């Protein structure tokens, strides 16, 4: 088993700086993602914010990825490549992006994603709104679980519990299994792999100094996905909508701290009775 990188308090502070850049990209993307705007234009918004903060994109060039943000529209689950197709009112779009900074001779990474309905929630179908809300809630439930649980299997259990909470007679949100959360630190992707569904077998213990990217991906249908010919774009095989939410979360001596949320996770964790512990 590969070692899990544990961070010092100082290193977590470096990662908070990277996380706040990512939070600022999200703020700018939310504002700019209007009907008629193209994903390529939004990628430039992201690139400008990263430059303005003196950071670097950890997406651009990763495995040859050509942009600073993955923009995944409707049935695209993750890894959508920004193109010149204008967004339309009612599209369910996820934005996944990151940045790193250099401190003490090393890179310190942030990584986060959110989904939104272009034109505002009212512009979306009832199914798109429901899926997006459940996916966001499953992310916060999983983050909250880190604060009170012993092992990282709590993430998959929490995500599944939220999908079960909203199960209807003939419908339940699908949990994508082929893509997972991950450790993050001096590289964007590190051990451990964090599954979004319950697993048997002993999973790593949650320990202070761990920093984890928690990122459930849910579908409005079947969980089967496929990769398009561009070797990046991941779509649902049945064409159903997908949503994706992610935050970079530090496990601290006092609890947890959501590094990519401007408020450290205060609002998202409040329903669970958890206060961020920087
Ligand atoms: Mg991400
Ligand atoms: Mg990630």
Molecular structure report:
With 278 residues, this protein is an alpha+beta fold. It contains five helices and 14 strands. The strands form four sheets. The chain has a five-stranded antiparallel sheet, with helices on both faces. Strands 1-3-4 form a three-stranded antiparallel sheet. Strands 2-11-10 form a three-stranded antiparallel sheet, with no helix packed on it. Bound molecules: magnesium ion (2 copies). The site of one magnesium ion has 6 residues, from β3 and β4.
Draw up the topology in text:
Blueprint: H1 9-32, H2 39-52, E1 69-73, E2 76-78, E3 92-103, E4 106-117, H3 126-148, H4 153-165, E5 174-175, E6 181-183, E7 190-194, E8 211-214, E9 217-219, E10 225-227, E11 234-236, E12 242-244, E13 247-252, E14 255-258, H5 266-269
Antiparallel strand pairs: 1-3, 2-11, 3-4, 5-9, 6-7, 6-8, 8-13, 9-12, 10-11, 13-14
Helix pairs in contact: 1-2, 3-4
Bound molecules: magnesium ion (2 copies).
State the main characteristics.
278 residues; alpha+beta; five-stranded antiparallel beta sheet; three-stranded antiparallel beta sheet; 5 helices; 24% strand; globular; binds magnesium ion
